[in-house]
Amino acid sequence: MPKVSTARADRAISTSAIAASLFIALVVMISSLAHAGGHGQTVTIGDLKIVEPWSRATPKAAKVAAGYLIITNSGSEADRLVSASMPLAGKTELHEMMMDDGVMKMREIEGGIEIPAGETVTLKPGGDHLMFMMLTEPLAEGAKLKVTLTFEKAGSVDVDFPVAAIGATQVPEHTH
Ligand SMILES: [Cu+2]
User: Fold this and answer.
1) What is the mean pLDDT of the segment spanning 43-48?
2) How buried is residue 132: exposed, middle or buried, by Cβ count under 10 Å (0-12/13-18/19+)?
3) Ligand 1 mean position, distance from CA 54 (Å)
4) Can you tell me the distance from the alpha carbon of 55 to that of 49, in angstroms, rounded to the nearest whole number?
5) From the CA of 57, how far away is ligand 1's center (Å)?
6) What's the gap in Å between 92 CA and the centre of ligand 1?
7) Verdict on whether the full-model pTM lies above 0.85
8) How far apart are CA 84 and CA 122, in angstroms?
9) Rounded to whole angstroms, how far apart are CA atoms 155 and 69?
10) 35: CA distance to ligand 1 center in Å?
């Protein structure tokens, strides 16, 4: 009888080992899918490459939300992000953060955001950002916002901004 129970135990172990490796494979697959989704799309327009666009869900009463992205200019001339628009926002501005009497405030960037030749500009929490204003509805976690970015030289391009959870401080599902 001990033999049988050992065999059973072996079988039980190998079954659970298979289940565990299948589970791990599944988790890896799902997290890589989520990871790819979390990065949002990579968009290229002319010499500019846009990666990791994202925004953040808003509570019901909120009228503003921020948008973030990374822009790399591989060209030999500077370009400039001059404006942006988003269908759920009555108005979209380009904002910067600044200290005013010891208080962090934000204000519209006059003349847009320069993307110097050969450099990468990151719009992120605490720094420059897109400000979606006069929202016509709350931004829902998991949604994708179609944002139109207009550059002085490269022209206009549509970029999908995935919406992270309320309070998120980085790209959704971003795990590096
Ligand atoms: Cu702002």
Assistant:
1) 97
2) buried
3) 15
4) 18
5) 15
6) 9
7) no
8) 16
9) 17
10) 27
